[in-house]
Design brief:
The protein has about 140 residues and is an alpha+beta fold. It is built from 4 helices and 5 strands; from the N terminus they run βααβββαβα.
Length: about 140
């Protein structure tokens, strides 16, 4: 397995994996979303195994007035058939390294309250819960 930057050939797999995460997407959706990212402040990394994209992570630098910039894992998914094999941990390590390379002293991840398996995964990697919050949307 290798971890590398996402490439155009990965868009169909990234879309399928987004669906596994609960966010149905088309390859065209992914192309559009990738184009909206800023390569200075955002990175999409993939786990490749046997020539196939089996997982991805989106990490971004978050700047704010109230604190120094930090890296935030904004999305992570590994194909169901490959979970538990180390791809997720490898993607997180790569995201952490990417953030350090951009001067970030902290990495944050937000996880839906119902994703208990994900919570245990992050805790095993040394992350700890620092707050709970509600998310509000307005259309």
């Amino acid at each position: 397995m290798i971890i590398r930057a996402a490439e155009p050939r990965d868009v169909a797999a990234i879309a399928a994996l987004a669906g596994e995460l609960g966010y149905p997407s088309t390859a065209q959706d992914i192309v559009r979303r990738l184009a909206a990212l800023d390569e200075r402040d955002d990175a999409v990394l993939v786990a490749e195994d046997g020539g196939a994209c089996i997982g991805w992570i989106l990490v971004s630098v978050i700047a704010s007035l109230e604190h120094d910039p930090f890296a935030e894992i904004r999305g992570l998914v590994v194909a169901a058939a490959h979970r538990g094999g180390g791809a997720g941990a490898a993607l997180v390590r790569a995201a952490e390294e990417w953030g350090r390379g951009r001067g970030c002293a902290k990495v944050r991840v937000r996880s839906n309250v119902v994703r208990e398996r994900a919570h245990r995964f992050y805790e095993r990697l040394g992350y700890r819960v620092v707050k709970s919050q509600k998310v509000f949307d307005k259309t």
